Amino acid sequence: MCGIVGYIGPQEKKKILLDGLQELEYRGYDSAGIAVIADGKLQHFKAVGKLKNLREKAAGFRSEGPGAAIGHTRWATHGKPTELNAHPHVGAFSYVVHNGIIENYRELKEELEAKGVRFLSQTDTETVVHLFEQKIKEGLEPFDAFKATIDRLEGAYAILLISEAAPETIFFAKNGSPLLIAFDAEEIYFASSDTAVIGHAKEAYYLEDGEYGYARPGEVRLFGPGGEKPISTQPLPADKAMAQKDGYRFFMEKEIYEQSTVISDTMLGRVLEDRVEFEELDPGLFEGIDAIKICACGTSYHAGLTGAYLLERMAKIPCQVEIASEFRYKEPLLTPDTLFITISQSGETADTLEALKMAKRAGLRSLSICNVDNSSIVRESDAAILTRAGIEKGVASTKAFATQVMVLWMMTLYLGQKRGTLEAETLQIELDAMRRTPKALLVEEKLHERIHRLSKRYLHGHGFFYIGRDLFYPLALEGALKLKEISYLHAEGYPAGEMKHGPIALADAELFTIALMPRTLLYDKIKSNVEELSARDATILAISPEEFELADDFIRIRHAEHPMLEFFEMMVVTQMLALEISIRLGNDVDMPRNLAKSVTVE
Ligand code: G6P
After folding, report:
1. Given 238, 264, 284, which residue is the final one in a domain?
2. How far is the CA of 347 from the centre of ligand 1 (A)?
3. For residue 540, what is the domain's CATH number?
4. Is the Cβ–Cβ distance between 472 and 567 less than 8 Å?
5. Which of 82, 195, 456, 523 gets the highest tally of CB atoms within 10 A of its CB?
6. Using a 6 Å cutoff on CB, does residue 595 contact ligand 1?
């Protein structure tokens, strides 16, 4: 996601920052900015789009000599990718860059606005710089003001702040988002990922949650909850490619692990105490709407299928899901009481975009669920909800799917509220479950190890059937797609109750059945479907919170209080299974043969 760099030292600061940001480009971004204090004076440059634009803007600027500098690449999540929303965020005499989410930013913003502070951006980050300056105005010393600021922050953050109140100093804090300090003789570097400093510095200290402090030439002071701490550095890795993957073997693996944190971002400011809100949606969008049509391709289509179960069940609105390439040529009947929803990770998929244009020509209102702001599909739609997954590098989609499903679940509650189809008690149960999702997405080492061990038994055979019912049927489709995409083994997703109408003829010991067996939804039904397969000697791998004695292999999931928590946990298991099988087969996990991340042709 976003990237941070910082530098204290005599070298040309602009160059160090821009080169560092360049190394973080792989994380994805849609705007960038730098701020420098030299000779006690602050200067900043921001630009939308690629770093080249920022380089051009800052072309005439030189910043040698003593001073401090910070830089940032931003991937829009709260607010559009505009220059005003780009970091560093500006106060009267200070600048801040931030990764993560300030969960209580609304409350802080209201408080500051009441004191007359004027906000320029739509971001949560801007509160940090104003809060700091407010504390200075109240008479605190700069470091005390910084400490008092971070004490007020709730959420996840990696923060660098510079101020004319303390030239040559960088204030830093970390909680939940990565940050490191790197050293090379007298020079001090900061970065959100070590790729930015490999080649410049030799040693680094990786901050822990709850740590903060300040750095100035020749001095770095580090504090934690228990007071001041010594800094013990370690050598920086030499391998940049490995560092880009945060130490994971593949981007896909990194992205599976990231799901727990990005889903919080998806929910931020939308899942409130007693309801779901989408600030970005005009309430009029749903007026006169009596049906929904969802259109998408690939993994996004599977998210759509999942959403349809939720929307019909809880928001009581008829919902059809269509594969975009089919929809385009079927001469569909489109009526203006239908809201047309497109789902796309990239926002550029040709078939989905064309389907959207068709719906618009037919006079339908449109909403896109997308991960890329300003993409063609977002621009073409009447309204958009961003999934906030951050860039996804692995061709096989993982975190994009998780966040799409989350948005659809949130939309269900949002519509349920509007349409009065949800009892207050049900709404509370759903909201509680939603808040527990980040935990359900955490990958335990034990689970990963178990899947790794099991995977060796699933490298042959004549095919895989992923089976599930209800919400778990689209998950079965998605699980099978993951396996196909990266292992090149034949896999199908099937509704469990439908196996007896044909596919059961294939059952033998070489047919691998991955059974999705949630405790909270139709457990007895799926159990008898699996029993039928087991009786025909199919090899069964059951994924369930409940041990199933007829299973040849069993992967236990933790949650069984709510179907969506079981859904998300099982999703992680199916992603991991595909990953481990693919690795054992020696395939290129991130760039599988014949596939592209974004398909912009028909
Ligand atoms: C490609 C990708 C898939 C993706 C599909 C739809 O085939 O390889 O992972 O699900 O396109 O892409 P979209 O960007 O519209 O979600």
Report:
1. 238
2. 9
3. 3.40.50.10490
4. yes
5. 195
6. yes
